[in-house]
Design brief:
This protein has about 240 residues and is α+β, with helices and mostly antiparallel strands. It contains ten helices and six strands; from the N terminus they run E-E-E-E-H-H-H-E-H-E-H-H-H-H-H-H.
Length: about 240
């Protein structure tokens, strides 16, 4: 990737079939990731989208308009070389999963949380044989080792792109279950946003929203939308 404001130095972007996938080329030369690796992905639809992002740049390169390229570089430079550590960081969210920690009051908020969050807890239990303990309050509760092992097994079966998307969505959501539900199609982007922002939306209804909160919500939506598209293209 290049810094914001770098002058566009190429005329054409294309893809080329390689042994390990599809490489992105600028005027026939391979694009490199920040770590110096070839920007090469296994999925042809994703590679075509990467080339499209480069084609759409105008006089200067704007990396913030190239989300698929950014996620692909993250996958190649950070996720694949550090897979055990990435998975370990994700598994840490099992013990602190947002969906497991409910408000004690007021009653209307606790009802909203139950309606929106409990079906996802039930889904994880039924789909992955990973029942999780739910509590009221913020004091940590241990989760069953059987459930932790089951979710670790789920992640072992994900591909590198799925782990990349999960490593983006899970910290934003504060929930590994939400991340897995998005990957599995149990939640679409709008549903995931509603689940993630339930508490904040409730507070905004009560006390009003501020510009910073709105901007933060927009950033979260953009990141989750990009992750969903990334997975769709990667597995397409």
């Amino acid at each position: 990737m290049y810094r914001t404001g770098t002058k566009k130095f190429y005329q054409h972007a294309s893809i080329e079939s390689e042994r390990d996938g599809y490489a992105v080329l600028l005027d026939g030369k391979a694009v490199k990731t920040p770590a110096g690796l070839p920007l090469c992905v296994e999925s042809k639809p994703l590679a075509e989208k990467l080339a499209e992002e480069w084609i759409e740049q105008s006089e200067t390169i704007k990396p913030n308009t190239m989300p698929m390229t950014a996620l692909s570089c993250t996958m190649l430079d950070r996720v694949i070389p550090n897979l055990p550590a990435i998975k370990s960081n994700l598994m840490a969210f099992v013990e602190t999963d947002m969906l497991c920690y409910r408000a004690e009051e007021p009653e209307d908020l606790t009802k909203r949380q139950f309606i929106a969050w409990q079906p996802l807890i039930d889904w994880a239990a039924n789909t992955y044989d990973a029942p999780l303990v739910v509590t009221n309050g913020i004091l940590p509760v241990p989760q069953p080792q059987k459930s932790i092992d089951a979710l670790a097994g789920v992640m072992d079966n994900l591909n590198h792109g799925e782990i990349t998307a999960l490593s983006t969505v899970t910290p934003l959501a504060g929930s590994l279950v939400v991340g897995l539900a998005l990957l599995a199609g149990r939640l679409d982007v709008d549903q995931a946003i509603a689940v993630i922002q339930l508490d904040e939306d409730y507070q905004n209804e009560k006390w009003g929203s501020v510009d910073e909160a709105q901007e933060r919500q927009q950033n979260i939506r953009r990141e989750i939308q990009s992750s969903a598209v990334f997975i769709e293209l990667l597995n397409g």
